[in-house]
């Protein structure tokens, strides 16, 4: 399994438009962060988690040739706004399977009605195959995927475990029985927004406490704001098995 971090930034990305914050002005490529998404290549199957506003640039940057499925964590724009840009994949492959909570599918149907409609469909519009998921294991082709359920302030969000890899973003609170699904991980990815607390995201301290509890072999932090600080300075202070993810980082498991 190979995982590519397509984007590791919070909702506005880094740099923030018009910002003079030193992190936004940094010339280190690791301080430039598109909106969060990962591509999981699993035995030749390309599974995308979230399809945000930077999707097109991310596919081009990583020369992605086919897309087998999209899993959505939740409906917020930084995780969904790129859905129209699946068109090149749709033209080559046909309808693209999407997996999401019923509430998220409803939101997507409203915002991308021309994609989800079957009547009088514009010939250039992309198509999807809807797969409603609940908080229980599901399969895509021969792959078993386990949702992990948690809260982003009061909004329900799904993370996903695939074998010994788990990806949890926009997490603020989680029940103990959901944490138990994360036993024995090789790699945990979890969000760490900034140093100061936030109402709907883990800050750095909360993310590190969570990693302590889950005890993966290694952990990567994502959904990062410019307010977390410079990549190299923050990473130098992290525990030995914890890393800051950065855009286009590839890891194998
Ligand atoms: Zn988000």
Automatic annotation (TrEMBL):
Residues covered by the Metallo-beta-lactamase domain: 34-223
Transmembrane segments: none
Pfam families: Lactamase_B_2
Gene3D superfamilies: Ribonuclease Z/Hydroxyacylglutathione hydrolase-like (3.60.15.10)
PANTHER family: HYDROLASE C777.06C-RELATED (PTHR42663:SF6), HYDROLASE C777.06C-RELATED-RELATED (PTHR42663)
Protein name in UniProt: MBL fold metallo-hydrolase
